[in-house]
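User: Fold this, then the next.

Assistant: Folding the first:
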Amino acid sequence: MKKIIIQLLFLILPFLCTAQEYIDIFSINYGKSQKTTFENSSVTTSISTFQTNLILPIVLNEKYTAITWVNFSSYSLQLFPDSNNNHLYSTNLRAGLKINHSEHWSGIYLFMPKVASDYINLSSEDIYLGGTALLKYKRNERFSYSLGLYGSSEAYGISMTPIIGFYYHSPDKRFEMNFLLPNDADINYSLTDKTKIGVDFLGHGNSYKLTTDNIRSTYIENNSIDFSSYVQRSVLDKKILLRLKLGYSLNEFRAYPIDQKLDLQILVLKFGDNRTLLLEDKSNTFLLKLEAIYRFDLSTVKK
């Protein structure tokens, strides 16, 4: 078994050797917000979130690496003042290639289908297709930047998102910045060999078709932004990272008729948006989140 694991690590190692000296192969987190009140109502609801990720890159040769990435996420909240809790799910598959174009330039090209809805009466209409292309320039082991584009079909139409990335690790390896904007940013500092403190930002948007009384008549458009500070402790030879996060979450859930779409969305710009807004639920609350991450340290293998 140990021999198989070592062989697998050497298969994925060339893919992992980017400016970062680690890869998060598996992660899982659970978060819960404090209760918030519906607008113009005394009814309260809390928001529970769950997410897990698994990534498996396999090196084909010195230039090409195959990537498989699976993500599952869920929301649990009361969307309407007079309803029970609603459950919104999204299962995402990312499959594609990483290509080493030159000594400094590489690219990641992914096909990204997903299944997103309340998972009641699932059908092919709950499948959305997307993709991303990301070019990365690696200046050295401590600094890189990237540019890319993500596009996807959604319940509300077509969404396009430009991507800008930046990574920096200080010479003493205590200070680290990892940005993948507009959706992800992390800044952290090592207090000791096993303890870090940091702040992060996570923005995400999705759409889910909703079933009411066994009828599909609406969809939910969700946009959320989480700002968090955290304490991280590594255990088991720093392979497992445990994080406790406290932050503030901005959540917006909007309901529209299922047959109404916009022409195109680019970030916050919406073109041809003549939809009828059926519901708008803005829930801004404090958030407590627990995370566990399995991280593989590349520097130990390099040595």
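Now the next one, as you asked:
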Amino acid sequence: MTYIVTLTPSQIAKNEPDWLVAQRFTKGLPTELDTSPEGTRLAFLVCDNRAGSAGSGRKEFSERGRFIIWVGSVLRINTVGPVDRSITIEPMRSCPEAVPLDGPEGILAALSPAHRAAVEQALSGSAGYCGTETWQALRAALRQSHPELTPYIDWLLARLNPVVFRPDDAADRAWQEQKDAADSLTRLTDFPHSALAAWDRPLNRDDTYLAGLIPEPFEQSLIEHDVRVGLGDMSQLFDGWRRLSDVLCDIHVLEDSTGRRLEIVNVNATPVENRLGTDMIYYHHPTHSFVLVQYKRLDPRGKEYRVDKQLRGQMDRLEKVSQLSREPARPHEWRLAQDSCFLKFAYWRDTATSSSDLAHGMYLPLSYARLLLDDDCTLGERGGRIINYERVGRYLVSSEFTDLVKLGMVGTVGTSVEELRDLGLQRAREGYSVVMGLETSEETPRARTTRVRKRSSKERPKVTSYSPPTAQESLFDIPDS
């Protein structure tokens, strides 16, 4: 179903301040309305201003008529009592321009009589819907007369129809791990997961996960302003990185209205069939600290991992990574332990999609993993070593690991951006998909802790999400060789 919700100007004036913050709206449905899950599950919010009211306060409504003003996706259908139902629209975005439905230049005039009648029927009450064929006709008319709305619709549809990863395909497995790493970075930094939720497979199997990202649409003038203000005199990043013949690299930027910023840099330097796995590296620039998580896939059925020489060799190299840390000299540099590298033994169900859910699994600090491999608890019947939930016993889950990192309780001390830059490129050339996240802000360690402990979405600032152009500036400055 493609839903159409019709509101008066006064109703919009009452609700729009909340929509701008929460990007969510719950609307009751007529009892007789079909709520079949078939169709797009898009929702259009229409202002009915045929009476000429000025109650909305919007300058677009100086003329009478009906206008599409918001578009969103139906997150869920709610049952209220024995018969009453409602829909929750989330996320929702304000249209770049109000789209007129009426008049010779309106959308309805571009539809055939049958489809026009179907849309009019949906508009006749407070909420209605149109079927698949009418939606296709409506979509074509919107693309033709209001192309500025197309990125919003494409982004919402991609979110509503996540890709199903194929566990028997090497590229899908690699993208699945990189996706989990990117989503983990948004959780570590309290940026919205929805910013990375719209994705489709890149044409090149060796490409990064971010190469398939469908960016959330924003006004170009807003993005350009944020780039100029947020980056200042920082050095260039991707001109140097992208000139390297053996590197595929993509970046996506999240920035909130306070100036706090997350750059996600995704790098592949080997063919996917030769890939050793995925590294997630999160760097908190104000405290010069990073953590590295290396992904290991558990067998989805037995949920176990059989240890081999390759794992032990990779752990040896991670020990060297941990040496990029110095002794703490200030209170905020104190850590619970010296571990800055973790292994995530993860598994995905066969039906896993590109939704925002993180992979299930165990986070093991490197030093703890060493102890496990030297203990009888991981010794198999034939002398091999096995990692699984029963044998490990104690481990961190995603939420516990995330809280430790966000509170600055784990990670390196005194690691420079240059050391991080060299590490990321080195790991990619060793055969890993690397997903690096760099958080920058003016926050003090105390202010960071205060923000982390605030959970209300209404208190969170507005976020801009975009993929910058090639000649973008960044804290990173990757050499050409």
